[in-house]
């Protein structure tokens, strides 16, 4: 390339697609409350009010969400940042103070969850440096539709917002946000019970930080009124945990064998170091809870005797080990149960691991942006604490020993119960089982029981062979039960004695079927079965796929069953010995139901 003039330019940002994707990335519509609550607490609010209702004056009964707090309000800088993307001004230290010295909101993305609506209204009062109050009222019309329209016509134009402002004196600070026509496919998300559950599990107001004696938000109150609720409900700050109840003997005296359902113990480990990352810390709170306790404080859990509504969930769907940042648990899909438990054991645990160095995706839905090596070290630290401190704790050991003993007793009782049930079932069967009797000179009467399986066919054959030698033209040398029931035999009519070339197989079956899966016809001397229900001429195949046809004939009044060798395959026919028929024809034995 010849020398040419060097040129310079800057990359262009297409704002509309970015805004649209960020708005859409917040997939659970209740995330709007997570972002609003974090902003309110970051701005020093001690009281937050949330109301969700349907606008009765509109034919479509559009969804309206009102969020109000008594925080420091929006200064002019913070007001404009509210509408911008990735614009999150710093707050004063006295407002933003937390254990880590950082507030929750830092990316400037959260308020974009409000844009999925028809109209977005913002009103706020904040204090100016001179002591006066700045009062602003603003609104944006059709934010989501404007983004979609601009994208459709390939214009990079964001929707406008309008505002009016004035200076006032002596007014209390606040911020109020009204979201009209919020778009959602399912209003059940905004049922009061569903919103309350979400707030107490997945927002800053449901933070687990109180377990680590971080009480900066301890006395703050949230008033919530979701769909279906006539008046606001006052909610205390902090994730709900049950009181500890780990006296096993006391629980046994009250609840007998159901005591594990009411057991509660907890372990808390703050500021734990990570190998290889000396500047990072993790905090762990670990509760072990019985299911009855969980259902006492968590009304959203499904339970026997109550119709399961769409907003209810199971213990398996909700409990386990959660990852947190800012002491806010992430979505249940981000649980890391495999770090501490196998199979369904995690349902016993109500546990959280917090790390301020987790890097979350923009919608706070995942720790997927966190370095993989760092996550491995967090996992190893959690596992070490669980193994060396929690499982080694005397309370945990006592609990586990009692559970193991109960399981052992349960297995014993279950085995005894199964044995009793088996005896009862077999007794009932024995009363209806068909038996046949055979009497011969100078020998006691032989009682034969109709078989149910192949092994019993072999027993009848052995008894009959002993009582009536020569009834079958082969001599059994060895039995095998590894794959079905078969026997190695030598033909009585053969010559040469016990030599490998004279050995054959005899297959034992309850009933003759269309397939032999264990042997080929070439090494089969005969088939001994109890009954044959196949039609004359039925085709039967062997292990190698060779086929023979069943022929039924009679001679001197006795039925003869034979598997015919095809004309193009050398070898003799294979006789089928149908024991029921042989015993009737040759020995006159009839099987009848005994009298009970």
Describe what you observe in this structure:
The chain has 13 helices and 23 strands. The model is unreliable at 93-101 and 494-499 (pLDDT under 50). Strand 3 and strand 4 form a beta hairpin. The chain folds into 4 domains: 15-236, Histidine kinase-like ATPase, C-terminal domain (Heat Shock Protein 90), CATH 3.30.565; 248-392, no CATH class; 395-431; 437-586, no CATH class. The strands form 4 sheets. An 8-stranded mixed β-sheet has the order 5-4-3-6-2-1-7-8, with helices on one face. An 8-stranded mixed β-sheet has the order 16-17-18-19-23-22-21-20. A 5-stranded mixed β-sheet has the order 9-10-13-11-12. The termini are far apart. It has helices at 15-25, 31-42, 76-83, 93-96, 143-152, 192-202, 248-255, 291-297, 315-318, 372-390, 394-432, 454-467, 579-586, and strands at 47-54, 63-69, 119-127, 133-141, 161-168, 174-180, 221-225, 233-236, 264-274, 277-289, 320-325, 328-329, 349-354, 435-440, 443-449, 474-480, 485-491, 503-511, 524-531, 539-541, 547-555, 558-564, 574-578. The longest helix has 39 residues, at 394-432. With 596 residues, the protein is an alpha+beta fold. Helix 1 (15-25) crosses helix 5.
């Amino acid at each position: 390339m010849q020398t040419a003039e060097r040129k310079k330019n800057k990359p262009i940002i297409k704002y509309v697609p970015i805004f649209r994707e960020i708005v859409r990335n917040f997939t659970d519509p209740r995330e709007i409350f997570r972002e609003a609550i974090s902003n309110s607490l970051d701005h020093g609010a001690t009281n937050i009010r949330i109301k969700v209702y349907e606008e009765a004056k509109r034919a479509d009964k559009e969804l309206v969400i009102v969020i109000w707090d008594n925080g420091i309000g929006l200064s002019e800088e913070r007001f404009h940042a509210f509408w911008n993307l990735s614009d999150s001004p710093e707050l004063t230290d006295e407002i933003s103070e937390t254990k880590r010295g950082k507030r929750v909101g830092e990316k400037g993305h959260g308020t974009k969850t409000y844009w999925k609506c028809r109209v977005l209204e913002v009103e706020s009062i904040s204090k100016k440096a001179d002591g006066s109050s700045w009062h602003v009222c603003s609104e944006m019309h059709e934010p989501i539709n404007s983004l979609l329209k601009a994208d459709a016509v390939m214009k990079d134009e964001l929707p406008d917002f309008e505002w009016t402002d004035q200076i006032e004196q002596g007014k209390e600070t606040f911020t109020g946000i009204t979201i009209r026509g919020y778009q959602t496919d399912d209003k059940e998300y905004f049922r009061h019970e569903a919103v309350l559950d979400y707030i107490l599990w997945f927002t800053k107001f449901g933070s687990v930080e109180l377990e680590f004696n971080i009480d900066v938000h301890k006395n703050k109150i949230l008033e919530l009124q979701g769909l279906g609720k006539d008046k606001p409900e006052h909610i205390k700050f902090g994730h709900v945990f049950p009181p500890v109840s780990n006296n096993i003997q006391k629980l046994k005296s009250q609840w007998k064998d159901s005591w594990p359902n009411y057991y509660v113990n907890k372990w808390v480990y703050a500021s734990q170091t990570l190998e290889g990352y000396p500047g990072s810390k993790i905090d762990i709170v670990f509760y072990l809870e019985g299911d009855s306790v969980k259902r006492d404080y968590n009304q959203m859990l499904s339970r026997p005797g109550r119709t399961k509504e769409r907003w209810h969930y199971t213990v398996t769907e909700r409990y386990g080990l959660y990852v947190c940042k800012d002491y806010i648990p992430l979505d249940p899909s981000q649980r890391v149960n495999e770090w501490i438990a196998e199979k369904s054991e995690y349902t016993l645990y109500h546990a959280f691991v917090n790390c301020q160095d987790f890097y979350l995706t923009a919608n706070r839905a995942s720790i997927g942006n966190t370095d993989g090596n760092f996550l491995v070290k967090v996992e190893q630290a959690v596992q070490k604490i669980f193994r060396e401190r929690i499982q080694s704790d005397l309370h945990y050991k006592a609990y586990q020993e009692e559970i193991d003993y109960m399981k052992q007793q349960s297995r014993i009782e279950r085995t005894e119960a199964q044995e009793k049930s088996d005896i009862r079932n077999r007794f009932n069967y024995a009363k209806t089982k068909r038996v046949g009797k055979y009497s011969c000179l100078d020998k006691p009467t032989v009682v034969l029981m109709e078989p149910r399986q192949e092994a019993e066919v072999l027993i009848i054959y052995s008894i009959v062979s002993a009582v009536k030698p020569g009834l079958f033209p082969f001599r059994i040398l060895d039995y095998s039960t590894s794959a079905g029931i078969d026997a190695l035999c030598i033909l009585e009519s053969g010559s040469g004695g016990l030599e490998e070339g004279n050995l054959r197989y005899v297959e034992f079956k309850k009933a003759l079927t269309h397939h032999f899966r264990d042997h080929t016809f070439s090494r089969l001397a005969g088939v001994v079965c109890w009954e044959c229900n196949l039609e004359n001429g039925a085709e039967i195949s062997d292990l190698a796929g060779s086929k023979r046809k069943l022929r039924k004939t009679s001679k001197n009044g006795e039925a003869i069953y034979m598997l015919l060798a095809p004309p193009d395959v050398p070898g003799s026919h294979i006789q089928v010995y149908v024991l029921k028929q042989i015993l009737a024809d040759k020995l006159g034995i009839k099987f009848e139901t005994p009298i009970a």
